[in-house]
Amino acid sequence: MTNLIDLSPGELVPKLQQMLDDGADHFQVLGVSATADTEEIKKIFVQLARSLHPDLPAFKTPAEKAMATRVFQAATRAQMVLTDPARRAEYMHEQGISGGEDGPPAPNPDLARIHAHRARQLITRRDWVGAEESLRLANALFGEDVDDHCRVDMGWAIFNNERNLEEARAAESREIWEAVIEARGDPAAVAQAHYCMAIWCKLNGEVPLVKKHLSNCLAINARHVEAKREMRLFERRRSSSASHPRASSSSRRSATGRHDANGKTTGEHNAAPPGAAAAPGRPEAKKVPLKKKPTLLERLFGKGR
Fold first, then answer.
1. Which of 36, 41, 70, 304 has the fewest other C-beta atoms within 10 Å?
2. Cα–Cα distance, 250 to 263 (Å, whole number)
3. For 4-83, which CATH class?
4. Where are the domains of the chain?
5. C-alpha to C-alpha distance for 38 and 59, rounded to whole angstroms
């Protein structure tokens, strides 16, 4: 890294100006490594600010003051982002910057928990894209110190993120929840994974597995509100189907005619459409001519007899 603090104001400002034009990141602007801690970053910024502030006597012309203002604001912004753990992690993720020279970010469980908490706030706002990104980063920062709740939340964010292909997000979310269930780690997280799997099975047509996962969830956490509600709905549907086995055929009949109290189809909506052939085995209706009654005059004068 360039040792920027050793440069004079007249040398430092033009150099930073050029670095910004070349697309320097926050670490390069401050002249620190990606592994620099918060205290080091604050110390470097204070030293740079003494040479960058636009009110310094070294910057006399409007052009010099404007250049100093730009680089001072860039350094201030870099310091603010890099000294906030959550913002720093998000920035590094967006820029593709690792915690070291190579490989994934260095494990940082405290930072991971901060990022996971922020992701749960995004989930309540249904920001599935932001939640998935934050949770993926949080899981990477946990390293070997796996957090089952974070994994379950990540599966839920992936499952609901419509920017992902439907088959891909369905497969990945199921794999995550099944791994949590199989590991049998934190009981609360395992219960939540079973609930998520129940919803997954419900939406993907695997109805026989819905009750299994809901039962497993409630066996671990009997107070799981969402699972209790889904179980009531499931039982209600099952009991309704068992007590009305001919519901589907009745529905098909109702599409062509109304039903009376005895379940018989009335003729009001049962007639064939115009031009249709008569139903097989049913005789065609014959037209019967109506006999006209004679009027009073016709009866008096003998007409119509």
1. 304
2. 9
3. mainly alpha
4. 4-83, 186-238
5. 30
Query: Model confidence over 122-176: pLDDT tens digits?
Result: 999 999 988 988 898 888 888 888 899 999 999 999 999 988 788 888 999 999 9
Percentage of the residues of the chain whose pLDDT score is greater than 70: 75
